[in-house]
Amino acid sequence: MSSLTRSFLYKVFGAVKKSRKCEILHDVRLLSNLAGKRSISTLDISGIYPPIPTPFNTDESVAFDQLEKNIQIWNKIPLKGYVVEGSNGEYTFLTPNERVEVVKKASEWAAKDKLIIAGSGCESTRDTIEMTNRMADVGARAVLVVTPCYYKGRMTNQALIQHYTKVADNSSVPVILYSVPANTGIDLSPDVIIHLASHPNIIGIKDSGGDISKLASLVYKTQSEDFQVLAGSASFIFPAYSVGCVGGVCALANILGDELCQLVQLFKDGKFQEAKELQFRMIAPNVSITKMYGVAGLKRAMEWFGYYGGITRSPLLPVTDAEEKIIRDIFVQNKFL
């Protein structure tokens, strides 16, 4: 289906609420199938996802062999899928072709029951649309679109609504909003999110801000839409589920995927005290590989659990020996090592 046709359908039907959305999407699928293109559809994104790091060789080229080895380990864990080329994937340091190739390989190596969500966000709307559809063509089932931020002083609510609407209008797969104010300096406002939730091709948000009241409000105010809220950190996955979030994209899932899936199952089984105790143990380790030492800390910690972490791409520096000891001690103190 052409971008023009898709855009026309969304502009006509975009304001219609959930009761009509299934009929609209059915019409879009029919037109898309007639055109021989990928169809637009809703998608269940509930569950736990690791935002997987991009492994590098010592010369900073992408180590695809190590990526395959890591994915083979993750395939054995009851994760819902993988976020590829998110913030932990160092996507800002990769060329467009590298970004697409990593998504392609991850899609090939992921188990059939794993969902591939690709980080397709770029600074311009046009580049984001192009990257989105390139990633869809190589296996991404949905895309995670981070807020553009270089000109953050002009990234008004109106600018962001226009950006995401154009991307969703022209995307061949469902779009997930991505708010990560620690990296972008922009906290996607509830007004923008609620407005965009009515778009037929915007199916959810990953919010890494850590404001539980905001997550609860989003769940409540978008309940009439096909819109799903994902927590963006393992530090608040238990309270996020408590207020109605359906899953999480968590850096800690790269190394403690089994434990995070166990926490979710404990919550679903009503074993809240056990789930809460496991949540408490995860907070300090998660902070050590996110806020404290970032991707470099995560990659070093992966080595202790049988994964390939390797180096970061310049200008990111590796953790020092002293920093590594701090991270390791935190994991030991919380009984994960």
What is the strand and helix layout of this fold?
Layout: H1 3-13, H2 18-34, E1 47-49, E2 51-52, H3 64-74, E3 81-84, H4 96-109, E4 115-119, H5 125-137, E5 142-146, H6 157-170, E6 175-179, H7 181-184, H8 190-196, E7 202-207, H9 212-221, E8 228-231, H10 237-242, E9 247-249, H11 257-268, H12 272-292, H13 294-304, H14 321-333
Helix pairs in contact: 3-4, 5-6, 6-8, 11-12, 12-13, 12-14
Instruction: Count helical runs.
Output: 14
| Low-confidence regions | 8-40
Q: Any idea what the radius of gyration is? A: 19 Å
SS class: alpha/beta
Name the helix and strand elements from N-terminus to C-terminus, one letter apiece: HHEEHEHEHEHEHHEHEHEHHHH
Q: Please list the strands of the largest sheet in the order they lie side by side.
A: 1-9-8-7-6-5-4-3-2
What is the terminal separation in angstroms?
51 Å
Q: What value does the average pLDDT take?
A: 91
Helix content: 40-55%
Query: What oligomeric state do these chains adopt?
Result: single chain
Number of strands: 9
Q: Please tell me what the overall shape is.
A: globular
Proportion of β residues?
A: 5-15%
Largest sheet: 9 strands, parallel
